[in-house]
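ok so heres the complex, four chains, lmk if somethin looks off
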Amino acid sequence: MVVVMEKNATQAQIEHVVATLIEKNFDVHRSTGISRTVIGAIGDKANFDEREFLVLDGVSEVVRITEPYKLASRTFHPENTIVQIKDVKIGGDEVVVMAGPCSIENEEQIETIAALVKKSGAKILRGGAFKPRTSPYSFQGMGEEGLRIMRAAADRNDLLIVSEIMDRAQLDMMVNYCDILQVGARNMQNFDLLKALGKVQTPILLKRGMSATIEETLMSAEYIMAGGNYNVIICERGIRTFEKYTRNTMDISAIPVIQKLSHLPIIADPSHGTGIRNKVAPMARASVAAGAHGLQIEVHHDPDHAASDGAQSLYPEQFDRLMEECRLIAKAIGKRM
Amino acid sequence: MVVVMEKNATQAQIEHVVATLIEKNFDVHRSTGISRTVIGAIGDKANFDEREFLVLDGVSEVVRITEPYKLASRTFHPENTIVQIKDVKIGGDEVVVMAGPCSIENEEQIETIAALVKKSGAKILRGGAFKPRTSPYSFQGMGEEGLRIMRAAADRNDLLIVSEIMDRAQLDMMVNYCDILQVGARNMQNFDLLKALGKVQTPILLKRGMSATIEETLMSAEYIMAGGNYNVIICERGIRTFEKYTRNTMDISAIPVIQKLSHLPIIADPSHGTGIRNKVAPMARASVAAGAHGLQIEVHHDPDHAASDGAQSLYPEQFDRLMEECRLIAKAIGKRM
Amino acid sequence: MVVVMEKNATQAQIEHVVATLIEKNFDVHRSTGISRTVIGAIGDKANFDEREFLVLDGVSEVVRITEPYKLASRTFHPENTIVQIKDVKIGGDEVVVMAGPCSIENEEQIETIAALVKKSGAKILRGGAFKPRTSPYSFQGMGEEGLRIMRAAADRNDLLIVSEIMDRAQLDMMVNYCDILQVGARNMQNFDLLKALGKVQTPILLKRGMSATIEETLMSAEYIMAGGNYNVIICERGIRTFEKYTRNTMDISAIPVIQKLSHLPIIADPSHGTGIRNKVAPMARASVAAGAHGLQIEVHHDPDHAASDGAQSLYPEQFDRLMEECRLIAKAIGKRM
Amino acid sequence: MVVVMEKNATQAQIEHVVATLIEKNFDVHRSTGISRTVIGAIGDKANFDEREFLVLDGVSEVVRITEPYKLASRTFHPENTIVQIKDVKIGGDEVVVMAGPCSIENEEQIETIAALVKKSGAKILRGGAFKPRTSPYSFQGMGEEGLRIMRAAADRNDLLIVSEIMDRAQLDMMVNYCDILQVGARNMQNFDLLKALGKVQTPILLKRGMSATIEETLMSAEYIMAGGNYNVIICERGIRTFEKYTRNTMDISAIPVIQKLSHLPIIADPSHGTGIRNKVAPMARASVAAGAHGLQIEVHHDPDHAASDGAQSLYPEQFDRLMEECRLIAKAIGKRM
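and the predicted structre for the whole thing:
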């Protein structure tokens, strides 16, 4: 941390800041320039609140120089993390695709879609059994029965499963069905849930919150990792901006940024990132071109009658064509799919 | 809902939209102008997804004309809701103040602060026992023991209590200690928690999420009310914008906007809304001037040694002076405090 | 500036950074901690681009420790600037009100409104002769003839005049009519215009851009001041956020923030800040309560037939009542109006 | 436009709205449902202010159903516009690349860079002679002399030229040197400049403002087109969000959105869109993958000593490799480069 004193800070103010830093276990380096004193403070804890120093008299600015996360940081773990589930590796040179409906609706639906996405090249089946709906009056998901039929469809089609967990009370049950547990954008800072997920070894797909900074997203990954579960995959799914034509603004640049800051895999969800079918394909292609380790895409064989999010679900033939295009793009940048 | 067709939409496309609307139980009114057809659709459900119609061929735009919330809407409940707890009424002409430390730290601390804020005119004691900290390495709160000592301090000083609930598993325990349960900004869309809170009758203080629209905030209130608990108080605490000098940008205009859209009380939290002590007083005054039904303010007798958020906590004498100023401002607009 | 090296930066990388800093005329202080080297760099220029160092190999982070503005900074000019025009002082203890129509429409209109706002206590008449309309098909303003009739109305009613300048070609003409020249939000970074305004001594009312940070706003003030015109008044008029119920989100906290960073007066424009009549009064009151040095408010005697912005213009009786309330609020915080 | 009345609107309020609409030349269609009256209003002007109806008593919501732009809209001009300059066509199947330094610095620099970018496949040379710098103390550009030497370098290397115009006073001079005139993000709503550009036939590269919505961007295009110049190219260059790791958040989804709403070509500027060298290539690739008609990229043979924006300029060999990758990506989606 660097504490910059005001131009006209008094000697007493400087001494007080130094004393406070020492009291809080920082090593202190003072440099006095022509116009200002700057105090370098080096500590071993990442979890201090820099505003505590900002409010001291005579302080002009306080700047932290370490990321507040550690286990998630590339500084502490320079090699890419590869999350492996059976023979699927997320985080390496292969772009891995998760596809399926927004909600699991019934046995026929999930089987039909599983077979279609498998044929097009997906490795993981997505589908929600517990749905975080903005309205209390909307379809809330099939619950455990949904997971049971999705597991069966996945097994028949040799696919892995990812599904969203909404409350830590669902954890013991869900680990029996799912290969990857998804934390939704709205729960990215549900810290009780994150702590519980740190206690299992099932890989976690952590979606960036709608207004979460990249740093906060990595801090939420840190919560899970601090509990002992290092299998965390980050997912960019659009942030909230002033623009109204799209539901969210997909922050494609988060992909290379996170790859620099962290060793964790990062995938993209253009379905939620845009919210409307005809924008999904361009944004999926853009994500692969920017270097994403994977994609999560909503696909439905009959989107007009989907129980939720039909408007952002691709038709199977659109998904198939998109996979073809993404394969070529992956190749163009030295990856495969 | 109004469905606007494209200028060059075909007759077949228009028929398909009409048929789809009828299939989904809407009454349909078609008006054909010189250049476009506009279809009015009237239904009795609030929970449809307008994007389902937006993706139909020939459709240019879809506009919903009803708010997606009902119980929280002033249309359905024109009179102000007044949440009454013992003799404290929130939502009427009196500006009610909740004050106290960020975290409950120990018996002496909470007693000292309770006595101070009571003397300055607060009616409700705030204090966190479970803390939603961004870092897993930060102080996570005293838990139930904290609630026990806060309850005792509140009782000794004739104050009510508000404290944050983070997970529905804490509910049965917390209702025994708290007069108001607070839902934090990060949990505003933790729908499992909201549903559980709908099952009790304890008043809920619902904080607007950092990037939640006003509509989404009212939808979260609707979740609680749909379960049967109508005692909901909304709290504006700052939204996320591009500006970096303040932690958040307090959206003071949300106060009159929510008062127009909803009958629920709306209070302001300038401590989290700004994140830094010397901005708390101006924003508290601004909130009262804009018509807020109450304030929530962090106060600590020794902020430099607070376990959390010391930098945004007022000194007792600052709080006392602020109360004096707010009293005059309340009077200037025909309220009292 | 502080340059933070990466944990595993090599000696050669550190040397290269130091050499680059010296080449660019910085004094260098190096501190090597257990895990990192941190380099303090002190220079006398404010206009460097810190990214030049960020891209050097081995650099983790670069932090500037001086504001990029100087003349606008309170560090360099600790006393409040008071802009005085005749007997009106902006920046002191009196809250000064500028009021009038969005556009000057005709002689009768401007005279009627001038008399009304004067009676309610306004000191300055506002009115646009050149209008920055989003649509090329909208009313673009009366031009010089408008200024002529506004000047006459102002003189008859003993008011000063503020009006917007849109292009530096209008400058020579406008200084003959106006007491204050306004730079609109859309032109806040029209640097050619700012430079031209630095060459005159007429006070400038600089509106914050819709997405301008506070720092950028002060940098635009710096442009004007660098040319020699120190009479700059800042105006907060709402920033762009994700919230859709209001046209803009008024950043009331910018008022105390700018008062800390700069010595320049800061006023508030709740008419543009909210965009809708019934939100103007609460936000005007909030601005005064937060400590604004003045207000700019749109008032029209017949808003339903206004040539522009009728929807956000107050009726004269609303304006009169608002002035009454603001007077009491100003008094509550030790100011007058 | 659709005017939705409140649930409890009176007959008199409805009549008043209808009368007001008729007075303003709208055709009115009234539909009365069980709970509300909805009024459809069809007019032939695009430049009304819908808020004028929103403030009428009894009105709940007002929704415009036509875009406020016309000449820029795909509705009125279904075919793609192709801007052709000599043998370069922007807006068709070929992805056209504009590359060069941020600022023109001297003859040797611009000649060196021109030759390099030509060799890698660029068709157009970019370079600034008038620089919109945030600080008045920064390098402001070489002015006309810069344009002269850039023109010579471009001619020697068979390249076209694009350069930024900052003030309408520069127009007569600049058309003599430039093939494309660029309007910078900060001047996107400098309406006097836009009007002047409508009077010439030189193609205009219009950069989206940092906080401009897509609709506002197209309205600025409309300003130019309304004057008679239909050769407008839109450029996405990043918008302002809460995220701090990147200077701006590039809104890649604006590319397909604008292609749906408008017939004008849309290109991407990943140099300003990210602000830092190592993010330029991934975002350039993403833009091509999303369907951009072209790219604008800053390239410098010696970025460490560039007069401006060196940190976001590519080294020539990086640019060359990027062109190679983009060529493959363009091919993957049926385009060429």
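quick notes: Chain A has a mean pLDDT of 93. thats all i got rn
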